[in-house]
Design goal:
Blueprint: E1 12-15, H1 23-26, E2 32-37, H2 41-44, H3 47-54, E3 59-63, H4 72-84, E4 89-94, H5 96-108, H6 115-120, E5 131-135, E6 147-152, E7 157-162, E8 168-171, H7 181-197, H8 207-229, H9 234-247, H10 261-273, H11 277-291, H12 297-308, H13 315-332, H14 346-359, H15 371-380
The structure holds 5,6-dihydroxy-NADP (NZQ) and zinc ion.
């Protein structure tokens, strides 16, 4: 185990069919609750009804309209409502965007300044309003981590910050049956890439973290065709949902190096073009693998061998085949693998390069991906 670490994940996970009803016993009594929602998918798939049923007798107000890639502009309205209604507890019902947005709302209700200041400087976050979630989209791990990613529409910026964990999260896999195929594909990709961001770094740091990560990736590869064939396959969706939570709740990160370059470059693309998170990551990841192949050589070989069974040829040939097979996997779930497929080109690459050079950004496990290296990665992703 390479590095010392501390680990604490306080979120209680409540998993399985029919578990939304448990809100009635899990939510604290005598609180003024704010229930936060996205754009309304919960009204079509029965989630809203189940939540209302469970909340009978509780004192609550609703906030609607937290959008994908949640913006501070929308969240300011939720914060104002929370302050006005003197809420003391928040329940997020939705995907990663609703849960992330709720983390900012929970941080900003007790804060006097503007919420964007907390995104830029999370050390300003004081005591937060406690919150919980009902997850409807497996992808981000937000249901069991303290991270959140917030966009600023006016500035075309998107940043991650860390605050605190949901007290509990309810995961009923049957609620995922209504997801559009594209969102499922993006969720699989996001999960897979969360694992890689914590795995595709340096070799020999922790055999347990390595095998744990490889296990999640192999499980996703096995599940993807089953889900494609039938997204109402409970066992497959349940397993995928658990993969997504386990990929970003700290369990694969103990004592090992982490990368996150793909994510931070991806956030810039989304900030500028509004592209969906998982789809964006796939494209950047392939560029990162190509440009960083020397630095990541040992781990790329291990990933190719253990996850895709690529064992023949020279090291270079095996790495080529590993990157190619990764691309085929994402193609097989219906995602684009090149920037040009999203009509994104050189102009965006230059903008991101300049942003990173101005901010003196240095990404990756070695802290050596600056604006110029980012340009190379994105050129390799064209
Ligand atoms: O808004 P509604 O109407 O609910 O529709 C949503 C939304 O349009 C829909 N949806 C969700 N559950 C559904 C459903 N439609 C039908 N049936 C269901 N059961 O799906 C659309 C996308 O939802 P969203 O919450 O945006 O997706 P996701 O969970 O992928 O979240 C993406 C956001 O999370 C951030 C991303 O950057 C992005 O902003 N991330 C958060 C992380 C974290 N907190 O740790 C880490 C991730 O790397 C990621 O960056
Ligand atoms: Zn992600």
């Amino acid at each position: 185990m390479k590095n010392n670490f501390e680990f604490q994940n306080p979120t209680k996970l409540i998993f399985g069919k029919g578990t939304i009803a448990q809100l009635a016993t899990e939510l604290p009594k005598n609180e003024r609750i704010l229930v936060t929602y996205g754009g309304g998918s919960v009204k079509q798939n029965g989630v809203y009804e189940q939540v209302c049923q469970a909340l009978k007798g509780f004192d609550y107000v609703e906030f609607w309209g937290i959008e994908p890639n949640p913006t501070v502009e929308t969240l300011r309205k939720a914060i104002a409502l929370g302050k006005q209604e003197k809420v003391t507890y928040i329940l997020a019902v939705g995907g990663g965007s609703v849960i992330d947005g709720t983390k900012l709302v929970a941080s900003a209700i007790p804060y006097d300044g503007d919420a964007w200041e907390l995104v830029l400087k999370p050390s300003k976050i004081g005591k937060m309003i406690p919150f919980a979630s009902v997850l409807t989209l497996p992808a981000t791990g937000s249901e069991m981590n303290s991270g959140a990613v917030i966009s600023n529409a006016e500035k075309q910026e998107k940043y991650a910050f860390f605050s605190s964990f949901p007290q509990f999260s309810i995961l009923d896999p049957t609620v995922t049956f209504s997801l559009p195929d594209f969102q499922i594909a993006c969720g699989i990709a996001d999960t897979f890439i969360h694992v890689l961001e914590q795995y595709l770094t340096l070799p020999g740091e922790s055999p347990l973290m390595d095998r744990w990560s490889e296990g999640i990736m192999q499980t996703l590869i096995e599940l993807a065709p089953q889900i494609k064939a039938d997204k109402t396959n409970y066992d497959a969706m349940a397993e995928f949902m658990l993969c997504a939570t386990m990929a970003l709740n700290g369990f694969t990160a103990m004592g090992v190096s982490q990368d996150w370059a793909t994510h931070l470059i991806g956030h810039e693309i989304t900030a500028l073009h509004g592209t969906t998170h998982g789809q964006t990551l796939v494209i950047v990841l392939l560029g990162t693998m190509k440009v960083m192949r020397e630095q990541k050589k040992a781990k790329l070989l291990q990933y190719g061998t253990r996850v895709f069974n690529i064992t023949e040829g020279t090291d270079d040939q095996r790495i080529d085949k590993t990157i190619e097979t990764t691309e085929q996997f994402f193609r097989s779930i219906g995602l684009a693998t090149k920037l040009s497929e999203l009509n994104i080109g050189k102009e965006t690459i230059t903008t991101i390069k300049e942003r990173f050079l101005n901010r003196d950004t240095r990404l990756g496990e070695a802290g050596n991906i600056d604006g110029n290296a980012t340009e190379e990665i994105l050129n390799a992703a064209l």
